[in-house]
TrEMBL record:
This is Uncharacterized protein. InterPro entries: MFS_trans_sf. One of its GO terms (cellular component) is membrane. GO terms for molecular function: transmembrane transporter activity. It comes from Lipomyces starkeyi NRRL Y-11557.
Length: 103
């Protein structure tokens, strides 16, 4: 349950940051905001198939916590972004999030 709540907050992180000053701080222009959310969602969708397949090979007891740690590292990296191009790594954050929250 906690993982799902964090996931729903995380899916809105770029929107909240954009409204709170990311646009000015990182000089986001044009369609970059749409690219950020699209890449995150693409990573989430692409990660669905390997996430299901990996659960048959690696026990969830190992897989889910390791993906949570990877997701945490990705969030920390995104918080230190100094320009808009660094936000594009959110595709990996979306994939890690998909692995960490199996259906």
């Amino acid at each position: 349950m906690l993982s799902y709540m964090i996931k729903s907050l995380d899916q809105k992180n770029v929107s909240n940051a954009y409204v709170s000053g990311m646009k000015q701080a990182l000089h986001v222009d044009g369609n970059e905001y749409n690219y950020f959310t699209t890449l995150f969602n693409c990573g989430y969708l692409v990660g669905s198939i390997p996430a299901q397949m990996s659960l048959s090979l690696v026990p969830p007891l190992i897989m889910i916590p390791s993906c949570e740690v990877f997701w945490t590292i990705m969030v920390m990296l995104l918080s230190r972004a100094s320009s808009a191009k660094y936000i594009y790594i959110s595709v990996f954050q979306g994939m890690a999030e998909r692995f960490a929250t199996p259906p």
